[in-house]
Amino acid sequence: MSKYIIKVNGNPYEVEVQEIGGPSAPMAPAAVKPRAKGTAGRQAVKTAQPAVASAGDVAAPMPGTVLKVKVAAGDTVKKGQVLLILEAMKMENEIVSPADGKVAALNVETGKSVTAGEVMVTIA
């Protein structure tokens, strides 16, 4: 029986390992390359930005279902005005206008499912 101390996320744990079968001579432990401090167990998180065809396009930030459409084609909107409500992950998300302008195209309706990056409204 062999005893080892293993660190997991900086916490040391003492473990006992018993060899069952296999070669009678104990194997040498494999070389482990140490990681830089502060990066163990962490991965870089990137924020996905949906592709936008033009500056006036309002794309879905995540997949979901349109619950309410609060504007119609031809309506004048102000920056920050709620255009529609998108349900995603059981949460209601207000999708707002990025700029002042006029709704040139409305590509969604209540109950429609959208994918991330899909253009829902175009503001001219």
TrEMBL record:
Coiled coil: none annotated. It comes from the Bacteria. CDD domains: biotinyl_domain (cd06850). Keywords: Biotin. Pfam families: Biotin_lipoyl (PF00364). This is Acetyl/propionyl-CoA carboxylase, alpha subunit. SUPFAM superfamilies: Single hybrid motif. PANTHER family: OXALOACETATE DECARBOXYLASE ALPHA CHAIN. Residues 48-124 form the Lipoyl-binding domain.
